[in-house]
């Protein structure tokens, strides 16, 4: 594609050089530049892409888009735009052929439940005969082909390239998690969404967003985008959790049709007769979009919400009810979400990704309902992330657990002892010292919990779910809670046999 054609996608403030140059690619990272590429320089939080323009040119960039005019060699074409993150998204969409305009695009946002809800919607749409693309925290998927990920929502260029591949591989619908970071940092600006799903809004990411209002505003962007005209012939639709206090804000922001779902407040789609058990949860769905009885293999009231969101989305897209029911009932689990670890032990071990106060409260409440013995919780909090979550998670763990082992999550560049101190501030007012212990080493912490557990106890290992690494400093070390739990159980059995 010629630079001239590509630049039609954005408003240009100043420009120079030969715009008839043919582009071979586009990137925001000088290290990924190859000969013939356009480099878009972004002023980031850690560094400034404008400082890497020289390196990009050395690696073969033929054109540069920037926010401030830099002096460049005469053979380099250039353009200045107001906001390079926004421009990057629009340029990337155009470069990869505006793939979101050819796909049924379903975006799911909210603090918790995005991975679970997208996974459920994807299963339903696959069962209805559609080839589905999935984008999210655990992995991206094109049909059955799994692609590893580094972010929940990819940077705009990577996202548009991936959507382009989906088109080539015959995907009809793409279900994606849309994180608040992605919305705030313009990663999805080049996407045309047909449906937006809101799961819930509770405290997280206040290291990044200035306030809860700012966090909410980021999420509203997805719903506001439904007001833009579309040319796919699909009626745009918003699916909103009516039980969340922010529901009305989402409804006000949204364009197109609106369907609400819920358990407590009046909603278009609702659940009754909810029965949570160790193997799952059964309930009836009723309301505007049909009714059915469901036996879900995922447990907890929170998964009733995830299933209601998925049911509403799929029914609004016109998927027949019997297909939705079968598909939801066939889902055996989502990796790292309330995942049971079974190595033949006589107590229950559950690995879960709860890393927010609300997530932790939901799983501990559920586990409490199902525990005949003691509830032992192993958890920590991520470093370089919202510090306000730490004491909140501490008090929640204290409220529901019989015993807590406070450990490291991904400490990143923070001192693990300081993170743990933050958690303990919430624990101390609620429990005696003999009811918790601190073990910074997560492997040892898991081992301790396993060695402590007796018949009928439940051990919850929270925070890292599907993650197969631990980030200490800036390095990633292989680490998987599920594997560690199995090893600890086996080691203990070996000890007993000796
Ligand atoms: C806060 C945040 O999201 N930051 C993202 C942002 O980084 P940044 O703008 O600070 O980038 P930077 O490192 O300052 O660099 C600025 C620019 O210079 C470029 N550069 C830099 C070095 C170099 O040698 N050459 C070069 O060209 C970089 O490519 C970049 O374009 O843009 C980068 C490029 O896309 C992202 O990798 C980075 O994600 C960081 C690593 C991150 O951890 N993000 C997390 C918090 C995140 O996005 N999480 C959400 C999920 C959250 C949830 O829902 O739980 C997600 O969607 O994954
Ligand atoms: N609907 C829900 N409401 C509250 N908590 C939930 C809900 N669904 C899941 N959880 C809890 O939150 C954790 C994360 O769930 P999930 O991965 O589906 O959410 P997510 O929004 O994708 O999270 P992330 O933003 O980190 O990717 C689960 O492991 C569970 O503890
Ligand atoms: N996407 C979330 C994941 C958190 C997972 C948890 N294990 C942690 O490291 O805090 C984040 O980056 O905040
Ligand atoms: Mg997720």
UniProtKB/TrEMBL annotation:
Molecular-function annotations in GO: ATP binding; magnesium ion binding; tetrahydrofolylpolyglutamate synthase activity; UDP-N-acetylmuramoylalanyl-D-glutamate-2,6-diaminopimelate ligase activity
Top EC group: ligase
Cofactor names: Mg(2+)
Keyword list, A-Z: ATP-binding, Cell cycle, Cell division, Cell shape, Cell wall biogenesis/degradation, Cytoplasm, Ligase, Magnesium, Nucleotide-binding, Peptidoglycan synthesis
Amino-acid positions noted as binding ATP in the UniProt annotation, renumbered to this chain: 110-116
Enzyme Commission number(s) of this protein: 6.3.2.13
Residue numbers covered by motif Meso-diaminopimelate recognition motif: 409-412
Modified how: Carboxylation is probably crucial for Mg(2+) binding and, consequently, for the gamma-phosphate positioning of ATP.
Function: Catalyzes the addition of meso-diaminopimelic acid to the nucleotide precursor UDP-N-acetylmuramoyl-L-alanyl-D-glutamate (UMAG) in the biosynthesis of bacterial cell-wall peptidoglycan.
Protein name as it appears in the record: UDP-N-acetylmuramoyl-L-alanyl-D-glutamate--2,6-diaminopimelate ligase
Name of the coding gene: murE
